[in-house]
Amino acid sequence: MGADHQGDRQLRRLNARAVKDLPGDERFRELREGLRAACEPFGSSYWQKVDAERGYPDEFVQMLTLGGWLSAMIPAEYGGSGLGLAQASVIMEEINRSGGNAGFCHGQMYNMGTLLRHGSEAQKRRWLPRIATGELRLQAMAVTEPAAGTDTTKIRTTAVKRGDRWIVNGQKVWISRVQHTDGMILLARTTPLAEVKRKTGGMSLFVVQVQQAMAQGMTVRPIRNMVNHETSELFFENLELEADMMIGREGEGFRYILDGLNAERALIAAECIGDAYWFIDKARRYAADRVVFDRPIGQNQGVQFPIAQAYIEAQAANLMRFRACDLYDAHEPCGAEANMAKYLGAKASWEAGEACLQTHGGYGFAAEYDVERKFRETRLYQVAPISTNLILSYVAEHVLGLPRSF
């Protein structure tokens, strides 16, 4: 018995040594290496503790902020690095690939993109340098409403002009990170739906100072959920916003939001790709190391094939992610590519997660292996920030020319 056990351990060591590093993307290698080094101190035990306490990773986000990672897309003239969406997506990917969760801080990337592209020079000077230094956070965007759901044109939150102020009334739901931000992008109707020529018109964007708003008419109600994801329901009762808090032109908010959502979808795709690579690497190493019936389970095609399939799908998603980012950075239309990247990324991460959990068997449900935590986290992206069915509807109508289905 002792000899058999010793031989089993020796076989495990040989198999572990035989597993090479997962082939990586060569693009932005220095950026990747820098971020991996920054994430290394925040290992498995750190994320398990945050998850168990349903807490917020303040130390991790502070590290990213002080290191300039979250201000990557802010131009140098405002104190940032002046990088594009492609590089920003790599930052999000590598956070998830390291075993972390970029969902705690990704909002700042696409929210400040909205401000950067459509805000006034005064707004940029007011917000961007302070975001770059970490003095302020711009982590939240309030668009979704209980009745409207993903039909954004049907939102009921209104902003009515009175003198030099806008008075906001209404309700938002599933608003992430509002308890860990200083600023929030808000979409509200400034012209009633019945009075606009196009239903996408008549909506405007505002920057809300969260702490001030919470003392003057905005109520925050946290929503407990299956993931350690800080999200809330918001209620607005005669919240006053100064006129200069509007972003861009009145009535153009929907168009501005779409631009920001394209960036969001590309970034989420990158996070899913990072998750997929984490699951694949975890699964293949366990499959090479785990011995059952005197052979590594990874020697069986029934175990190999799902992992291999997940890798292929992750690679395909990776290519579409960079295509979407390249178009966005070139200020070219990228709606189809951003949606397809998000679809492919979410699909790849979910199937990689399924393969990883199956490979680990019962151990996949043990918190110490991190698989169940990452499994819960990546499941979100089949539903949000846009469901896979709506992406399919978008592609069917806007790319393939099929009749509108809703």
Question: What labels would you give this structure?
Answer:
alpha+beta, Butyryl-Coa Dehydrogenase, subunit A, domain 1, 3 domains, 4-stranded mixed β-sheet, 4-stranded antiparallel β-sheet, 13 helices, disordered N terminus
Structural account:
This protein is of the alpha+beta class and 406 residues long. The chain folds into 3 domains: 2-133, Acyl-CoA dehydrogenase/oxidase, N-terminal domain (Butyryl-Coa Dehydrogenase, subunit A, domain 1); 140-251, Butyryl-CoA Dehydrogenase, subunit A, domain 2, CATH 2.40.110.10; 255-399, Up-down Bundle (Butyryl-CoA Dehydrogenase, subunit A, domain 3), CATH 1.20.140.10. Helices cover 50% and strands 14% of the residues. A 4-stranded mixed β-sheet has the order 1-4-5-8. Strands 2-3-7-6 form a 4-stranded antiparallel β-sheet. Strand 2 (158-162) and strand 3 form a beta hairpin. Helix 5 packs parallel to helix 9 (253-289) and helix 6 runs antiparallel to helix 9. The chain starts with a helix and ends in a 7-residue tail after the last helix. The model is unreliable at 1-17 (pLDDT under 50).
